[in-house]
Amino acid sequence: MVERGSGIAVWRQIGESLADDIRNKLYAAGEQLPSEPELAAKFSVNRHTIRRAMGELEQSGLVRIEQGRGTFVQEHAIDYAIGKRTRFSENLRSQGVLGHLEALGSQTLRAAEIAKHLGLSRSAPLLRVQMVGKAENRNISASEHYFDEKRFPDFAERIAALHSVSKVYAHYGIGDYTRKWSRITAALPSPEVARLLGQPKTRPILQVEALNVDQDGAPLQYSITRFVGDLVQLMVADDA
Fold first, then answer.
1. Comparing C-alpha atoms, which of 190, 235, 178 is closest to residue 208?
2. Location of each CATH 3.40.1410.10 domain in the chain
3. Are 136 and 97 in contact (CB under 8 A)?
4. Predicted local confidence at residue 46, as pLDDT
5. Of 45, 73, 136, 147, which has the fewest CB atoms closer than 10 Å, so is most exposed?
6. In the chain, where does the domain assigned CATH 1.10.10.10 lie?
7. 78-236, what's its fold?
8. CA 73 to CA 141: how far, in whole Å?
9. Stretches in the chain below the pLDDT threshold 70
10. 164-203 pLDDT, tens per residue?
11. What's the topology of domain 10-73?
12. Pick from 117, 150, 149: which is nearest to 218 by CA?
């Protein structure tokens, strides 16, 4: 319970109490914490005090707050391998986690620098497909992928149905593809990415810029993927 007049803010005492409960496994990874009204009643404080304590726990990475759902204990980090053959679902499956990609939307555009990565003319039409990567029911990545629209005119529709880039490529007769290069950086998320990943805008993400090529070395896909920084650990695999 909290001690008023102790010189330590009440909200901070509540945060430390909940943090101790999490560290002592009273709440398991991924488990939902009691609601704000329940915690307010337990500690005999108002909901604003609980909200401030939860915000501090979220900033420390112990919990995540999902709008409209509640507050959950942050899961253990997922080791995500970045190598010659980077496959989202296979990466998660190797750790006993079910995962898939979900398409959010697509647009046709022209972008000279991206077209250059794909070996196309500056004015070539590109297909931009936005996706989220899910581990169980949790979004762990938000990404945008660029393709030659003439080569892959219905990629967005295929990924929406198959939830796998590899399966879509197989539909186009591409049996294998490899990662030519990856560039990994840390960054702060945009408001939209923070919303998709269910995290504060002030918490860094891991960003991976990459280019995939087919068996003949021809560019297939330029991507920018943003991972939840405290839920995903990127491992550079030695499989070149």
1. 235
2. 78-236
3. yes
4. 94
5. 136
6. 10-73
7. Chorismate lyase (3.40.1410)
8. 18
9. 1, 5, 239-240
10. 899 999 999 999 999 999 999 999 999 999 999 988 888 8
11. Arc Repressor Mutant, subunit A (1.10.10)
12. 117
